[in-house]
């Protein structure tokens, strides 16, 4: 396995120059374009790492997977899906267009920004502080890492420049898809995106989903089985933004990417994979990360279909 990871990583490095580090959140520009890292955790809890596996980066859109699980734990699923849909949008992750053109004006799914702002608004808590604490605690549990923290520089950078998300959130409130204080919902959304992780954290999240929500070491149930299924299904249909179809064809692995350069992948009953490569393609997915997952899928026969 160690050799496979070495080869796959070397191969993927050739592609980083085709991508660019995200710049629309100014703080993300600081990442090193040529970094590439991998971590795999298999069902027997073997951990394999390679390259810049311990480099820290912000989780960004990968948080949408975890917050969806939380929204489904906190609320009836029929209520959640009255506020956010189940269909791929085919549009970029930050598109606002369908909030006007959809019949219901409901965001298409919880993996695009508009839908994720809705699921964030469904996290329960008596105060903003309690919601934040519950959210961070759940991320720590799923990553099995109590030291996960919010990167406040990225959070502030995004809060200062996130007017597109702000516009969407106000539209969502106007149309009845979120209730309460819009700025408070956005604040929590920006915080969830700014949680700092490395590939080991992502691989751990991946194996927890792969084992249908049961911690493989302790046997503790972290997520209900039906919710872990729903979440992985969304990863297949919508996890790689408007490149989800092609990615599913090429790899057959449920995965979710973020503009920080991370991708979490979850192969049911088999392994969790975390990859990092901040050079992104035009759709916002890690160029090296996609290459690595394609190669690993072929070499280790990870395609679930
Ligand atoms: N695709 C992403 O990772 C987007 C997350 C980012 N925080 C945003 O809201 O724009």
TrEMBL record:
Catalytic activity: L-glutamine + H2O = L-glutamate + NH4(+)
Organism listed in the record: Romboutsia weinsteinii
GO MF, any single term: glutaminase activity
Keyword check for Acetylation: yes
Protein name: Glutaminase
Pfam family, one: Glutaminase
Residues holding substrate: 61, 113, 158, 165, 189, 241, 259
EC numbers on record: 3.5.1.2
Assembly and binders: Homotetramer.
Keywords tagged on the record: Acetylation, Hydrolase
Gene Ontology biological process terms, A to Z: glutamate biosynthetic process; L-glutamine catabolic process
UniProt keyword Acetylation present: yes
Family of the protein in this entry: Belongs to the glutaminase family.
